[in-house]
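Per your request, structure below.
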């Protein structure tokens, strides 16, 4: 299994980033994290990157007029590093993928796509919608990103039950436990050539 040079784009706490760092250190994930980019100034994911001496950058979404301008600024940083693939790890904005990265961008979504996906479905908003719909199960989806929200080819999904007393917070934690397994599994599949972008 080849060692992947990983970029991580995030907007929040960086728990997924920390999972990648920990598994990489344990020899359980074939990654060398090259760069971390955050869209929010107060994202704790930046602190995690600094703690582990990973190059990190702030590219605030609010400083740019459009997704295209924001994505171009991100791409100007990414092209300074050998990257394959790019992982969206709690990155809540639309990342416009240039041709050279198409098929190399992965995202994890905290629901079973194609249900409960699209613009505005992030963080606990997803879990609120799942519970309001009366679903019997939820889970997470790892998929290749394209240039719209949550619509790229699915790599894998993991399911979790919805319990009678669940609220958005308890469901979120259970889904995140599934994410800790699903995203690394998808990255390993990518490294082995078993996950390919077919459109």
């Amino acid at each position: 299994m080849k060692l992947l040079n990983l970029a991580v784009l995030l907007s929040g706490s960086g728990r997924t980033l920390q999972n990648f760092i920990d598994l990489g250190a344990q020899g359980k994930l074939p990654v060398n994290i090259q760069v971390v980019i955050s869209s929010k100034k107060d994202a704790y994911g930046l602190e995690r990157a600094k703690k582990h001496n990973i190059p990190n950058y702030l590219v605030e979404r609010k400083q740019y007029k459009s997704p295209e301008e924001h994505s171009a600024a991100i791409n100007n940083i990414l092209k300074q590093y050998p990257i394959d693939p790019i992982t969206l790890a709690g990155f809540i904005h639309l990342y416009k993928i240039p041709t050279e990265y198409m098929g190399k961008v992965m995202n994890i979504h905290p629901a079973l796509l194609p249900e409960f996906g699209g613009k505005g479905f992030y963080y606990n908003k997803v879990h609120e919608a799942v519970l309001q719909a009366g679903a019997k199960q939820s889970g997470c989806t790892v998929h290749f990103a394209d240039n719209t929200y949550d619509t790229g080819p699915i790599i894998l999904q993991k399911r979790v039950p919805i319990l009678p007393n669940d609220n958005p917070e308890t469901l979120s934690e259970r889904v995140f436990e599934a994410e800790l397994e699903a995203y690394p599994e998808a990255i390993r599949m990518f490294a082995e050539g078993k996950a390919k972008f077919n459109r």
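DSSP finds five helices and seven strands in the chain.

Regards,
D.
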